[in-house]
């Protein structure tokens, strides 16, 4: 697995159980996965030579993120390296413009969008949105017909590379990287959902229960599985969309499809990730087969494991680096207060806002689970008033 | 953790989740745990210098077996190494004579026994048993009043070091090792049970549901959690015994107490192990907190996790090395046939009779679970007619 982060780290327990020889290419020895996986290789994942050297020791190459250069992946695949998911699938997780265009062509519902190359195009796009849809009147100081979401087509994550602009004066920044920019309608959504599926090269696929994902400042902070009160038809629609994307894009491994549940009851695709995903972490403790195990099974073309939930609800809350004066005290407090709490600590240096761990609780009463998980995550962050 | 076997290997996933820096002292780089744990040390666990060097890098020293020389443990503890469980507790898991005598003194029910030093003592012990209890008449060729169980007081495991003798002619072998021999009554038991508990240095303890353990040729082959049909009073008695042993012997970490449920409805202690135990493997997939996580929490004096079961029943069956012509085929067959099957593969070379993995299934219908787990284990062993 290329990448030394928490996703690779959490894949190691699944590899141990399956008896799979698992190794990672990490950027340094103190990355989360390098501390958990024997004979991990420290190298530069942007270097074709380093990737080649790493791949030489592997039967299958897979990834814990989308940042490996597409050209390198194409070269490796052409040289006979088994790359899963394949470069042509991964491109859709690397480039939001390519993704939107492809999904539209295969009939998957997405927000209205345009790939634009200059701020002036944003004004035209906003006008076009108003032409076809109702919109609130521009706020004071706005010179766009409606607010527009701008995203760099490449390289964004965790809210980075996303802007909501109401004025042309603020539309310049996304273009500074020099890459095309994706302009999108600001979707009026009830909440965000995520549909995680796994697919093997032979075409077998499984779909996990559709979850509700709560974002703050563009970062996933909380996941409830399954999404409370989601009508069956929307849950099925979300799973159908994710499975269709997996087939159409020939995804191998785990695919997470982040979705909007709109105020008018539609499901639209927001983002794709072709790897284990934050919205699937609850599966470690809450499902028969974790997303990490199914990712391994899929990329190794082994039969997939059951995605069934173990309890009526699971709630996962991310632990972000904060200013806990004594994290170890909070860690013990959380264990003592809630013996059923599952703590996952990534072994990373604590920096404010950084994802350093997560907690999960499973049970019947979703409000109780939410309270317990939020309390623990707040304590671990150092926010003991919460 | 001293020891490179599957118990250390299965501790690594728990260490990863807890964010604990876990390392093992293994006998070679191809042992089960050495393949799963970074920076494991290859050294001789019988060498005091090697143990010292390993302990120098650890905050707490613990074990995946009972074979580390008692004298070395005493020396390390005297030198300030934090050894958990401590040498004085571990001695009771290393020496069956010391264990029987201590348990008897603190009122724990055990089979009738004597520590004997020569075959002639066995005859006297057999006569003594008959004097106080009813017994079947000697079988043809027997010159003992009743059959007697002989066990080497040290070093036995998985049925090795245990003999059932009906004749003095066969009583010599156990004495050949030169160590004292434990002579015991042959207990008429309905089945074998196991009570697994965990205890921390500060005295907190948790008890897992009492399980039924099925042995074949002295090797645990199958565990059903909880023991089907076990009356509540006997389950409570078994847990009470295990918790009492943990307190009386000052055990820190996981303690497994193997028990007989006698035909006349009593509970007797058979064996002790002070580490994660084969009869607790089901907890990885079937309990809120696995025995491996609770062993780590206990030896690190962290609050213990809930031992509650996740489903009404869990069945675990060991996979023994066999003559499967194509283990990889069987592995895929089992995954495809039963997507809810949890496979645990130890990464060990396959040798006939060796424990090379286990499978667990959880659910409501214990007969169905038993069939599925047995089928999978049989296939993986190569016994496809079963």
Query: How is the quaternary structure best described?
Result: homodimer
Beta-strand level of the residues of chain A, as a percent range?
15-25%
Please write the CATH class name of the largest domain in chain A. Alpha Beta
CATH superfamily of the largest domain in chain A: ATP-grasp fold, B domain
Compute the number of helices of chain A: 11
* Net shape of chain A: globular
Write the topology of this structure:
The structure is a homodimer of 386-residue chains.
Chain A (H helix, E strand, L loop, with lengths): L5 H13 L6 E2 L14 E2 L5 H8 L14 H9 L8 H8 L1 H10 L7 E4 L2 H14 L15 E5 L9 E4 L15 E5 L3 E11 L5 E3 L3 E6 L2 E7 L6 H17 L4 E10 L4 E7 L9 H4 L4 H9 L13 E8 L6 H11 L4 E4 L9 E9 L2 H16 L5
Helix pairs in contact in A: 1-9, 3-4, 4-5, 10-11
How would you characterize this protein structure?
The structure is a homodimer of 386-residue chains. With 386 residues, chain A is an alpha+beta fold. Chain A has 3 domains: 6-83, Rossmann fold (3-Layer(aba) Sandwich), CATH 3.40.50; 112-185, ATP-grasp fold, A domain (Dna Ligase, domain 1), CATH 3.30.1490; 189-381, D-amino Acid Aminotransferase, Chain A, domain 1. Helices cover 31% and strands 23% of the residues of chain A. The first copy, chain A, contains 11 helices and 15 strands. Chain A has helices at 6-18, 48-55, 70-78, 87-94, 96-105, 119-132, 232-248, 283-286, 291-299, 327-337, 366-381; strands at 25-26, 41-42, 113-116, 148-152, 162-165, 181-185, 189-199, 205-207, 211-216, 219-225, 253-262, 267-273, 313-320, 342-345, 355-363. In chain A, strands 7, 8, 9, 10, 11, 12, 13, 14 and 15 form a 9-stranded antiparallel β-sheet that branches. In chain A, strand 11 (253-262) and strand 12 (267-273) form a beta hairpin. The relative contact order of chain A is 0.11. The model of chain A has no long low-confidence stretch (mean pLDDT 93).
């Amino acid at each position: 697995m290329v990448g030394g982060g928490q996703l690779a780290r959490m894949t190691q327990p699944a590899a141990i159980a399956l008896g799979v020889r698992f190794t990672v290419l990490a950027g340094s020895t103190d990355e989360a996965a390098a501390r958990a996986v024997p004979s991990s290789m420290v190298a530069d994942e942007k270097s074709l030579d380093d990737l080649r050297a790493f791949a030489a020791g592997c039967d299958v190459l897979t990834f814990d993120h989308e940042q490996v250069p597409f050209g390198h992946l194409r070269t490796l695949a052409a040289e006979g390296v088994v790359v899963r998911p394949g470069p042509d699938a991964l491109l859709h997780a690397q480039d939001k413009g390519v993704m939107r265009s492809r999904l539209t062509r295969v009939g998957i519902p997405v927000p209205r969008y345009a790939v634009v190359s200059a701020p002036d195009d944003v004004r035209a796009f906003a006008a076009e949105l108003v032409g076809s849809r109702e919109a609130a009147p521009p706020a004071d100081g706005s010179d766009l017909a409606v607010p527009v979401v701008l995203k760099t087509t490449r390289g964004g994550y965790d809210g980075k590379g996303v802007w909501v602009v109401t004025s042309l004066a603020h539309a310049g920044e996304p273009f500074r990287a020099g890459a095309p920019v994706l302009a999108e309608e600001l979707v009026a959504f009830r909440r965000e959902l995520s549909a995680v599926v796994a697919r093997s090269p032979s075409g077998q696929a499984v779909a996990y229960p559709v979850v509700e994902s709560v974002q703050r400042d563009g970062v996933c902070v909380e996941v409830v599985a399954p999404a409370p009160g989601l009508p069956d038809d929307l849950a099925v629609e979300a799973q159908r969309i994710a499975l269709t994307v997996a087939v159409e894009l020939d995804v191998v491994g785990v695919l997470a499809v982040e979705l909007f549940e709109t105020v008018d009851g539609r499901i639209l695709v927001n983002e794709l990730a072709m790897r284990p995903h934050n919205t699937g972490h609850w599966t470690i403790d809450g499902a028969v087969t974790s997303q990490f195990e199914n990712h391994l099974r899929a990329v190794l073309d082994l039969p997939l494991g059951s995605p069934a939930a173990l309890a009526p609800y699971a709630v996962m809350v991310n632990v972000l680096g904060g200013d806990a004066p004594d994290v170890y005290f909070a860690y013990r407090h959380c264990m003592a207060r809630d013996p059923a709490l599952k703590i996952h600590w990534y072994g990373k240096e604590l920096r404010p806002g950084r994802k350093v761990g997560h907690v999960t609780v499973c049970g019947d009463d979703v409000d109780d689970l939410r309270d317990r998980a939020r309390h623990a995550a707040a304590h671990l962050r150092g926010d003991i008033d919460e």
